[in-house]
């Protein structure tokens, strides 16, 4: 047992592997996204997705921490012919990590989860998180039975990751190992009801509002 | 229950069919068991288990974003797991329906069930969820049908509270 609060006291921490810059990585992953359906969440994943450009098929969840993957899963099951992407942080997904085995057993081939893993609770002051202290999300997703799990530490592997998002046989997980730097906030529309209408309108057509 | 009575779970299943419920998710409770089995057998209904009821509001939101109606089945103790996640369906005005089988009330044998059982309705109501209660087996179908309508026609967040009296008190023998 570590009685000294161990690694949690340190904000810095040595980087053992090369790390991506999160914003550039997300922007590159979403290049030519086409009609990909995206669910993004708090903490800071939303700012990165929004910086890649606003889109009616982006649904941002600024609360209900732990709900990004469940939402993307319900969507992927409802829309099996469309590609669905969840973009979230390491702490957000760990808040309800049971959703990873739930996803694994439902086997949505069209779903990819991108975890922006900075090893930090970035949004709340960059406290070291569980992954920062060594927990391996990719290993847990593999153990749960995801079809494809990739850890990306190098920019040159982002093109392959983009191919997984667009064409891979899911459920897939891509863990982006990013540095702890927090880029500027790029705020999307925050009204969830509006985002919902815009999303359904774009995906299902105007009559969706009359259901 | 008379032996020709297919049970309230069968009536609820028929209502799911009539009202185009396409996704059913659950952390099982014995009271829901025959309904879960019916949903799993039906190729038109996409059903599966959760590890935690907390996943329910998110999955229901995702289903609705994708144009499908869904229902979450859980027991009363699961209500304590979903409170924060309810913010998603509530803030976004997403139709949300859950069928809650009660424990911790009618003649309960297990004292550990009382904590959530006695606060189920208060907690849900405090979170903006409309609670419609069924106290007898005959009540269940009409209460479920009106709750389906409330949720999916009026974009409400609704719980059907199925009394422990309907299931009978669980005994450990
Ligand atoms: C239930 C709940 N607890 C705590 C918070 C506060 N909070 C907001 S973002 C966040 C951490 C996010 O970290 P991560 O998902 O790793 O994303 P990052 O900001 O590091 O990219 C926390 C704890 C919250 N929003 N909800």
Please render the helix and strand layout as text.
The complex is a heterodimer of chains A (211) and B (173).
Chain A: H1 22-29, E1 37-41, H2 45-51, E2 58-61, H3 68-78, E3 84-89, H4 90-95, H5 99-106, E4 111-117, E5 120-121, E6 127-128, H6 137-144, E7 148-152, H7 158-167, E8 172-177, H8 192-204
Helix pairs in contact in A: 1-2, 3-5
Chain B: H1 8-18, E1 21-26, H2 33-41, E2 46-49, H3 55-65, E3 69-75, H4 76-82, H5 86-91, E4 96-101, H6 114-117, H7 120-126, E5 130-134, H8 137-154, E6 157-162, H9 164-167
Parallel strand pairs in B: 1-2, 1-3, 3-4, 4-6, 5-6
Helix pairs in contact in B: 1-2, 1-8
Count of separate structural domains of chain A: 1
Strand portion of chain A: 15-25%
CATH class of chain B: Alpha Beta
Helices and strands of chain B: which structural class?
alpha/beta
Give the termini separation of chain B.
21 Å
- Succession of helices and strands of chain A: HEHEHEHHEEEHEHEH
How many angstroms separate the termini of chain A? 56 Å
Shape of chain B: globular
- Looking at the chains present, what oligomeric state does this protein adopt? heterodimer
Give the number of DSSP strands of chain A: 8
Unreliable segments of 5+ consecutive residues of chain A:
none
Structural class of chain A: alpha/beta
Count of alpha/pi helices of chain A: 8
Largest sheet of chain B: 6 strands, parallel
Helix content of chain A: 25-40%
- Average pLDDT of chain B works out at 95
Shape of chain A: globular
